Amino acid sequence: MSVPEKMRAVLLKGFGDRDNLYIGETDVPKIKDDEVLVKVHAFGVNRADTMQRKGQYPPPPGVTDIIGLEASGEIVLVGDKAKEQWNNGDKVMVLVAGGGYAEYVTAHMGCVMKIPEGISMIDAAGIPETFLTAYQGLRLIGNIKKGDIALIHAGASGVGTAAIQLAKFFGAKVATTVGSNEKIAYCKKIGADTAINYKHGPWVKTLQEFTREWNKPGFDIVYESIGKDYVEANQEVLGVDSRWIVYSCQSGTEADKLSLSTLMRKRITLSGTVLRARSADYKTNLVKCFQNEATNGFLNGKLKVITDKTWPMEQIADAHKYMEDNLTMGKLVVTIIQDEQ
Q: Which parts form a coiled-coil structure per UniProt (predicted)?
């Protein structure tokens, strides 16, 4: 398959509002020996993308300024070293540190996954960043296991949806917080044992009662993206020898209500993590672990990609608005090539 020199991509006039997004022409990226070039059919939209658009989440050094952390498509070029694993024509989904919002994207050979049987290009675009982020936090860092009780904040988000399913997949009980009654019903439908509308007031006592129902003094794991506003409450609901994993800070990065005394008394392990800036070796190992432990879940129906809404690339600003309005229930995907579902 011939590869053009130029491609269309979502570009930025400058940091700021959604109006700064536009479709422009730029060079098709060159691959390294350990990379593949993918002709993108669809890409996922993540909260991190809106932050990068605003200038709040820059790409790692050496990574393209083009937004986008995950995509699905067809391999059209393979580096010499990558030929050990991949071939032209392979239908794949990729985890990238940037560049997903384009007609072509390069990906390290270890960050490429074959699309599971029965999964469409559109749904596949919503797997890599979302499911690998949740898997990394819950399994590799949180060591989630059967019998654990996990609290997952923002359960209706893309990562939240994946985290609820993965927690149940590994045998845990799950509670989640969301911002509407509609999202409560949605989260319960995908497996949450209980869900709380945080807009109805404090939720600590309700969730403490939930853990007592399972004969536990508190949660074994809190997996969250909220940050500042939930620091105090998280400490209250966590149990002894528990794990608290933070992967984003939507309400702010300050932790002025963090009590070291509580952390010591309850022996809480507090971990902060990001995926984007991790090394290629780390991501390669993450992908291998995920495929070994969880990919079969997509084949037997225990794990599902729940695509909430799709847009063509020309409507990328509408996709960002939908996310920033907190309307998301599942994954947001933008299409470049219209595939059959």
A: none
